[in-house]
Amino acid sequence: MRNRQACFTLAKELVQVQPGVLAGQLAQLVPGTLATFKDKAATAAVRIEVLQFLRHLFRTHAAAAVQAHLPELLPPLLAATSDRYSKTAVEALQATAELVRYVREDTNAAPGA
Questions:
Q1: How many alpha carbons lie under 13 Å from residue 43 in its C-beta half-sphere?
Q2: DSSP for 42-74?
């Protein structure tokens, strides 16, 4: 579990430093993200790290890069908003709030526009 958490920490740092850098790798990242949400052994710290990664990913990547993966990501993300652990729920709400930008912007617009 520590390796998975470290991977998501690294991915989060990457998207913060270089916005849009993971746009071409989302197809490889989404299965690991979903696996973490489904894994009963995943600790709250790991789930929070994944949610923080998603929040920064949604903030720094264009809608066109992420929209193809939203049908897979939304159900566990929305489920996490009602997690019994409040820190997890807060992170899920913050990640969900970043999705509002996708609803409002053109799919070809630059991130943060």
A1: 8
A2: --HHHHHHHHHHHHHHHHHS-HHHHGGGHHHHH
Predicted TM-score (pTM) of the model is 0.88
Q: For 75-86, write each residue's pLDDT tens digit.
A: 999 999 999 999
The Cα-based distances of 19 to 23, 67, 99, 102, 111 in angstroms read 9, 16, 16, 16, 8
Residue 49: which residues within 8 A CB-CB, separation 6 or more?
5, 8, 9, 12
Domain that holds residue 77: 2-104
**Residue 97: per-residue pLDDT:** 95
CB atoms within 10 A of CB 18: 10
* Residue 57 maps to a domain: yes
